[in-house]
Amino acid sequence: MRGKIIDDCFRPAQALMRHADAIELLRSRIAPIAPSETVRLKAALGRILARPVAAAHPVPAHTNSAVDGYAFAYRDYDRDSGAAFEVSARAAAGHGLSVPPPPGTAVRIFTGAAMPPDLDTVAMQEDCTATGGAASRVRIPGGLKPGANVRGAGEDVAAGAELFAAGHVVRPQDLAALASIGLAEVDCFARLRLAIVSTGDELIRAGEADLASGQVYDANAPMLGGLAALAGCEAHDLGIWPDDADEVRARLAAAAETFDVILTSGGASRGEEDHMGAALAALGSRHFWQLAIKPGRPMMFGQIGRSIVAGLPGNPVAVFVCFLMYVWPLLRRLSGAPWPEPRRIPMRAAFELPGRKVGRREFWRGMLVETADGPAVDKFARDGSGLITGLRMADGLIDIPEEVDAVKRGDTVPFLPFTEFGILGR
Ligand code: AMP
Ligand code: MG
């Protein structure tokens, strides 16, 4: 079910909005909109679980040997002096014994084999001495504890245990956990259908033509396509829209019929050639945000029917930062995950910044570096929000709170690794 999701979410234009207030506003008003569907395990990587998942059976299902060696009953064993046994049978993984071995005997056993009935302890083969003609006897040294080298049924997961809550994002190791409890498919939230729009008469697409004077290759659409895909959305590129009021409005109206979310870049300020805001206001609800952040001060949010529109700035660095800070958690939440506040890692500053204008939250591009004093984060030296080089060099963002007026070398600064946003690296 989905109604007006961001109804009355955005207050009228106000003075600069603080980052934390913007996050709180989004966090408190955005609710999941995606329906659920059944997904084969093979296709579930990165998907968001629509229901909690509990184990119907214990894992492992059967008590089994953790090593290659000899299984025996501890009651037949002497911890001080060890014991010698006749080897009466063989148990390999997938080929366990169905009947108990004769009392007082040991069983040759291999890793993963179910423990033979009545036996409870395994000695590693490296510690044992096989004796007798056809290795039919074995000498086991002292010192083993009862139950040594045995993996108990349910020691990984007890029957009935909840493995995942609804909203969990499935990682490769989670696929192992899901398969280990016997699931071949899981209920996941459907991927959001997301449209990506670039705006600006100066833009052309790489590969389409050589740059004419004043033209710029569209860098935002490929970047947003990647970010949206890594955020688990089904991204659709709607191309470059011209700086033309009627055209923008018609295309926006059409896109709102089809997509859950429309992500635009550029044309989001209040300039004469910024038509996105007017189109959004005419077709639905629109709210300008003037954020007290750098980079990326103007942003727009709105809704047309059931479609949510996020209007990002035009400069690529501002687009990237605003996507990570506001759009990424919004997409995750709309997709059914809990609101994800990225985790800040305290890092030592390898740079200094003596005088800083307070009152504004800044997100600097940061590189992880090794220094004589250990790991630290360095700041990309230049500031411009059009410098894609800083994004390319960076491992994450250095999050500088509003009130900080200086950073000294060696100070601790909060660092947001790009991996927090599911951005691959290394
Ligand atoms: P705007 O907000 O439309 O005034 O754009 C601000 C700046 O970002 C301008 O210099 C634009 O040329 C640039 N810009 C806007 N969209 C893109 C894009 N898709 N790729 C690269 N640069 C862009
Ligand atoms: Mg523009």
Second-tier CATH architecture of the largest domain? 3-Layer(aba) Sandwich
Instruction: State the CATH class of the largest domain.
Output: Alpha Beta
pLDDT under 50 segments (min length 5)? none
How many strands in all?
26
Taken as a percent bin, the fraction of beta residues is: 25-35%
Domain count: the total is 4
Estimate the helix proportion, in percent. 10-25%
Topology overview:
Elements: H1 19-29, E1 36-40, E2 53-54, E3 64-65, E4 69-72, E5 83-91, E6 106-109, E7 121-124, E8 129-131, E9 137-140, E10 150-151, E11 162-164, H2 172-180, E12 185-189, E13 193-199, E14 203-204, E15 216-217, H3 220-230, E16 234-241, H4 245-258, E17 261-265, H5 276-283, E18 285-290, E19 293-294, E20 298-304, E21 307-312, H6 316-334, E22 345-348, E23 361-371, E24 374-379, H7 388-393, E25 396-400, E26 412-417
Parallel strand pairs: 5-6, 13-16, 13-17, 14-15, 17-21, 19-23
Antiparallel strand pairs: 1-12, 2-11, 3-10, 4-6, 4-7, 5-9, 8-9, 18-20, 20-21, 22-26, 23-24, 23-25, 25-26
Helix pairs in contact: 1-6, 3-6, 4-5
Magnesium ion binds at residues 199-200, 266-267, 273, 314.
Describe the structure.
The strands form seven sheets. A six-stranded mixed beta sheet has the order 7-4-6-5-9-8, with no helix packed on it. 40% of the residues are buried. It has 426 residues and is of the alpha+beta class. It has seven helices and 26 strands. β20 and β21 form a beta hairpin. Adenosine monophosphate binds next to α3.
Summarize the structure.
The chain is 18% helix and 29% strand. It is built from 7 helices and 26 strands. The structure holds adenosine monophosphate and magnesium ion (MG).
